[in-house]
Amino acid sequence: MSIKISYSNKSPNNLKSNLVLFVNEKFNISNIKKYIPKVEFEYIDDLLKTSDTKKNLLVFELSSKKKIILIAIKKEIKSFDIENLGAEFHGRINYGKKNQYFVISDSVVGKHENFIAHFLHGLKLKSYEFTKYKTKKETRVISIEIIGNNNQPLVKNRLKFKALEDGSFYARDLVSEPGNVLHPDEYVKRLNLLRKDGLKITIYDKKKLKKLGMNALLGVGMGSIRGSYLVTMEWNGAKKNSQPLAFVGKGVTFDTGGYSLKPARFMEDMTYDMAGSAAVVGLMKNLALRKAKINAVGVVGLVENMVSGVAQRPGDIVKSYSGKTIEVLNTDAEGRLVLADALTFTEKKFRPKIIVDLATLTGAIIVCLGSEYAGLFSNNDKLSNQLLRAGEKVEEKLWRMPLHKNYDKLMNSKNADMQNINYVGGAGSTTAAQFLQRFILNKTPWAHLDIAGMAFSKYGGALNSRGATGFGVRLLNQLIEENYE
Asked: Which of helix, strand or coil describes residue 150?
C-alpha cells in the first residue's frame, strides 16, 4: 500500500468523498455543518448520542462509498499527540482491496501550529511496512487530499518531515534485513551510497583497523568469513572550525553469541543487534537531506559475531585502541567491545562537543524498563537533561540509570585492565555502561543509550507497526534541533 498526499483550496461544501473532520474533545460538531449536507449532519448528530465519545476517533459509514471520520482534538494537545492521531487514523482506514480516497479539512487545525504536518507525519510513520521479500506485493493506493487555505504545511516543514521519515525508514529497512543479506560487507556498500546525499564516508577495513590497533572490535569479528569495519559519516552544515556532534552505533549484523552461544530460541531476532548503528545511519541521512545547520559525525562499528575455528575464545585478552587491555570472559558481551574502540576513536579523531552512543547492549535493560523506555547512562547532567526532554517531545522516552565508581570493581580483571562482563551478578546494564565509560578518555560529555527493548517491537507501537522501530532517529534529531542548531 502506498500513500499519496495532495493539497488544494477547493470548497469543502457537500463533498462526496470519504471525509475526515476535526472536532473538539467533546465531539461538538457544530463547526462541521458547512462541510456536509443537512441530512448527514443530523444523522451523525443522532448517532453521537449513543457513541463512545471518550475515543479519539469515530467512524460513521454513510453509504458503501462514503464515510465520515471525526477526530477529536484536545485543548492542550502536544506534537506527539497529533502524530499519534495520524497513526490512529491510519489504523482505522478500511484495508479493502480497492484504492481509497480521503479528503481532510477543518478550520480547527489552524489553531495548532504545524497540525497537518504532524498529523501526516504520524500517518506516514505508522504506514511503514517491510515487504521487500514478499513475492506478491500490494498495489493499493490511499490518496489523501488536504483542502483549506490554512491547512497546507509550509514547504520547509514538509521537507523537514520528509527527511525525518526517510531517515527513520532507512533505519527500519536496515534493521529488517536478514543476516544473510545485510552482513558487514553489504552494509558497507550501502553506506557508501550515502555519498549522494552529501555525506562524507570513510571506511576502515580489517587491514586499516589492525594498523590502528582496534583489536577489541576486530576480536568480535574473528569468527566470520565477512569483513569487520569502522565507518565514519560526516555532515558539515556549519563553519569548518565548529566542533561536531558525534553519534556512535553498535553494528553487530548477526550475533550468535560466539562460543558463549546464545540459546537457539529467539536467536533469529539477533539480526536487529545492529539497530544502534541503523539509528545513527538514519539520523545522518536525515541531517543531510534537510541540510541541517550543524557539523555532525556518525561512527558505526560493523561486525558479525560467529562461531568458527578462528573465533575469539572466552578468556582471550585483547588490547583496545585506547591502549587498555580487556579480558574477554564472555564472547556474547561483544557489543561493548565494538563500542570501546569506536568511542575512543571518535573522541580522539573528531574532538566532538558531545558523544551519544546507541546499542542493543543488554537484556538486563529490558528486565528494568521493558519496551517503554530506553536506558540512559551519562557522565554529564546537561546532556542527560537535553536527551530526556527530547525523548518526551517525540515520545521516544528515556530513563536515566546510575553510573558510579563503586561499580568499577565488578569489571576489574585480575589478568588485564578490565573484564568484559560482571560475573558477580546484578546491575548488568549499569556495569556494561560503566565499562564503556572507561573509553571516554578526555571527559567529553557522553551519553550511552541502551535501546535493546526499543529497537524492535513484536506487537507494534504508537508510530510503528510490528518489527523495526527506528528508535533513536527522531529522538536525536529533536536533541539537535532544540539544543545545537
From this structure: coil
**201 and 141 fall within a common domain:** no
Q: Are residues 283 and 403 in the same domain?
A: yes
377 & 343 share domain: yes
What total of structural domains would you count in the chain? 2
Task: Please check whether residues 275 and 396 belong to one and the same domain.
Answer: yes
Average pLDDT, the chain: 92
Cβ–Cβ < 8 Å for 306, 254 = yes
Cα 189 to chain center, whole Å? 21
Helices (H), 77-193: 79-92, 115-127, 155-176, 184-192
The answer to whether the beta carbons of residues 87 and 122 sit under 8 Å apart is yes
Tell me the CA end-to-end span of the chain in Å, nearest whole number. Answer: 36
Which of 85-89, 104-108, 265-269, 385-389 has the largest mean confidence? 385-389
Q: How far apart are CA 203 and CA 251, in angstroms?
A: 14
Given the DSSP bridges, would you call strands 446-450 and 354-359 parallel, antiparallel or unpaired? Answer: parallel
DSSP string, 333-381: --HHHHHHHHHHHHHHHH--SEEEEEE---THHHHHHTTT-EEEEES-H
Q: What is the pLDDT of residues 394-424, one digit of tens each?
A: 999 999 999 999 999 999 999 999 999 998 8
Domain span at residue 25 reads 2-153
Q: Which of 133, 153, 173 is the last residue of a domain?
A: 153
Q: What is the pLDDT of residues 162-198, one digit of tens each?
A: 999 999 999 999 999 999 999 999 999 999 999 999 9
345 with 455, same domain: the answer is yes
Task: Retrieve residue 429's grid coordinates.
Answer: 546494564
Interatomic CA distance for residues 447 and 113, integer angstroms:
32
Q: Give the residue from 128, 153, 178 where a domain finishes.
A: 153
Task: State yes or no: pLDDT of 466 exceeds 90.
Answer: no
CATH of the domain at 313: 3.40.630.10
pTM summary value? 0.95
pLDDT digits (tens, 9 = 90+) for 258-272: 999 999 988 999 999
Residues 240 and 324 in one domain: yes
Q: Which residues are catalytic?
A: 262, 336
